[in-house]
Amino acid sequence: MSQREGRFDFVVVSNRLPVDRVVEADGSTTWQRSPGGLVTALEPVMRAADGAWVGWPGKPDVEVEPFEADDMHLVPVSLTSGEVERYYEGFSNDTLWPLYHDVISPPAFHREWWETYKEVNERFARASAEVAAPNATVWVQDYQLQLVPALLRSLRPDLTIGFFNHIPFPPYGIYSQLPWRRAIAEGLLGADVIGFQRSSDAANFFSAVRRLFGYGTRSPEIRVPDGAGGHRSVIAKAFPISIDVESFEEVARRPEVIERARRIRQDLGDPATIMLGVDRLDYTKGIGHRLKAFGELLRDKSVSTGDVTLVQVASPSRERVEAYMQLRDEIELTVGRINGDFSTISHPAIAYLHHGYPREEMVALYLAADVMLVTALRDGMNLVAKEYVACRHDEDGVLILSEFAGAADELRNALLVNPHDIEGIKEAMLQAIEMPKRERSTRMRALRRRVRENDVARWSQTFLDTLRHVGHR
Ligand code: G6P
Fold first, then answer.
1. What is the span of the domain harbouring residue 349?
2. What CATH number is given to the structural domain containing 313?
3. How far is CA 413 from CA 120, 239, 403, in A?
4. Using one digit for the tens of pLDDT, what is the confidence trace for 314-367?
């Protein structure tokens, strides 16, 4: 069967479309751009190149025709509720996610989930092949779609194909547990360029490719036999992702946001130090570890309620996956215990918020936070760390950052911690609380330079330049 061709020269493919479906009071539906960094980065590229975005609208059983929004052509891929269970909640978020994050939670291996993962990846590949113009560039995003590059290449050998893995790529000893380790790696090798967050992720991928297939590698190049006696060259290397630094800073300079930050502090009872955690409620984020450290500081009387308040925003995530339900129970039990033991009528020990908030409110929280806690046990990058830094135009605030987050490769002037070391987190918290103003500014200035040097526009340009180069060989 021959594959139809489309009219778009640039196609982005991701599990979710960059828009949210909003149901109005009269029952009609509209689409609102979701606030993600990826769409901000790719918007100019989309506009310049006549781009299309292929993705799932985020709800099961929603059949929508392609539509235009914000100058982008959006191509919805529908999933039934069974497919959402097996492909999204199951294989993506209960097999690959825990496996790629160092098996912090045990991954479940189910053959039915794998079958649906393959089917859904095929659907994404077909939808992309149908909209891509001859010789177009297609950029596939993230672990939910690792089979798409090879599927797409077999449907449309004329395309230039990029893949970016937003999450870690695990060491071979972990990756090799995956019963479908060869199929997944073959899927990725269909791309011309495979991007990772850290060079250690790229190195792990090289080692998987050598061990599984024995292909010749000379970083950043992998030589993949083309079946006709020759070979294709695949580039695999790190392209650390970032945020739209200017737009965060712009929001952080708005007088009403600065005023809101002041009000937040006042509403918390004007503590000397506000510590902040902002995470999706995910077991990779080390929320429990930071709560434990904070609870012990209160118990030891190293800090006291009223002087120090911890604000923890935990936005709801993947709530139908068992490990996430369990995590929520654990975290909320811990918060309840600490608050029961240490809060007073006027001062909470922990202000715990199980909500997502609009960007303005998040920025106000960043501005109010004297200490930002990023204690992930494993994280591809962690953009919260970069957002905090981008917002601190006052050159104040201390970032405590896990060395197991990708951001630690760049943000060396943070207080780096091993989140498994509770004593280490406690020491870093105390060091941050007591840090003199001069040191805070020196560190924050250096952090801000780093974040500004590599914003998300630079990330996408660098990736796409590499892809262009390879595609034109
Ligand atoms: C991580 C992943 C993304 C994912 C996001 C939110 O950042 O790398 O691919 O979209 O989490 O998770 P969700 O499952 O809600 O899409």
1. 245-454
2. 3.40.50.2000
3. 42, 20, 12
4. 999 999 999 999 999 999 999 999 999 999 999 999 999 999 999 999 999 999
Residue whose tokens read 């190293």? 302
Pocket of ligand 1 (CB under 6 A): 16, 142, 166-167, 317-318
**pLDDT, mean of residues 227-238:** 95
The verdict on 255 and 108 lying in the same domain is no
Given this model, what pLDDT does residue 99 score? 98
DSSP 94-115: IIIHHHHTTTSSPPP--HHHHH
- 317 CA closest ligand 1 atom index: 15
296 and 343 fall within a common domain: yes
Number of domains in the chain: 2
Q: Cβ of 381: how many Cβ atoms within 10 Å?
A: 24
**Residue 436 C-alpha to ligand 1 middle, in angstroms?**
37
User: Strands, E, within 250-370: which ranges?
Assistant: 273-280, 308-315, 350-353
Q: Are 17 and 56 in contact (CB under 8 A)?
A: yes
Whether residue 40 sits in one domain with residue 165: yes
Inform me whether the pLDDT recorded for 265 exceeds 50. yes
Q: Is the pLDDT of residue 402 over 50?
A: yes
Do 370 and 465 fall into the same domain? no
**pLDDT band, very low/low/confident/very high, at 296 (cuts 50, 70, 90):** very high
181 and 130 both lie in a single domain: yes
Please tell me the distance between residue 26's alpha carbon and the centre of ligand 1 in angstroms: 31
434 and 461 housed in the same domain:
no
Q: What is the separation of C-alpha 49 from the centre of its chain, rounded to a whole number of angstroms?
A: 25
CB-count burial class (<10 Å; 0-12, 13-18, 19+) for 232? middle
Q: How far is the CA of 334 from the centre of ligand 1 (A)?
A: 25
User: Does residue 191 share a domain with residue 271?
Assistant: no
pTM for this prediction: 0.96
Residues 138 and 42 in one domain: yes
